[in-house]
Request: fold
Amino acid sequence: MAETEAMSNDSSSPSNRLDLGVPRWDQSTFTGRFKHFLNITDMRLSVCSDKQLEDAKGLVTNYKLGLEPPGTTEEQLWHAQKVYMSAFHPDSGEKQNVIGRMSFQVPGGMILTGCMLQFYKTVPAVVFWQWANQSFNALVNYTNRNAASAITNKQIGMSYVTATSSALVAALSLNSLTKKAPPLVARYVPFVAVAAANCVNIPMMRQQEVLHGITVYNEQGQELGKSKKAAKKGISQVVLSRISMTVPGMCGLPIVMERLLRYNWFRQVAWSHAIFQTAACGAFLIFMVPFGCSLFPQKASIAVNKLETDLRDEIYSKYGDGIQKVYFNKGL
Reply:
């Protein structure tokens, strides 16, 4: 009995070879996507050393070639895949910078979100924290773009300046308009500014895809052409996903803070308010980062009949009705 179980768990058996090129869980369901992103956005992965990352990449690569070390277990392989997927771009295979990785979203996002929620009353504080947040977002957007679409340094700079400016204009304008409004209303200014900036930052950082199209493939991964409509669909999904990550923290915490400020003991420990909001944001983001990433499949699809006329006709002329959908990497 024990021997049979050992054989069934033997990942080196040809009939039991794992496909490490795809996520461990079914990506056609929200639950499967959530498990996958909860796995690879684990903030502990952001402190993996270069050696650990290269070892994981090496094990995944060697396993695909059938050259893994003898005695390699299935759990070791899944762990290597988890580390690899957390740090290497799915299109290019290049190692991503640490701050731009999705595994850094929780530590980076909790500090920035907590500080934006705490320090929102003065102009210098609004300017600094919105600038810091948009700098972080710009790096995340660039790191997780569709790598098949090139972008110049000039375009990166333009998208960064535009997004930061939009966030500052939204935040400062709303701060001015809400001076006489109830305190709770003023606490929502950071969320509105962040949402507005996301609507600018992500499309600007990925403008090459909007202007020239994103590469689309058939189910077998064969390139079929480039589509602007697919790019717009993918970018809009990413914008919605990013905004959803911030909703519980940036919309729920203002209510909690206003309730707590009714108590004298809480008002007397003002020094702890920033720490409390930062920790609370971290607790929300642990679940909201994978939740936001899971709202839509990363391998997005669009019906052929919804593509541009020239691309649609080209696909029909080559494949007839054999292809009903095309696929593309929407980014994160």
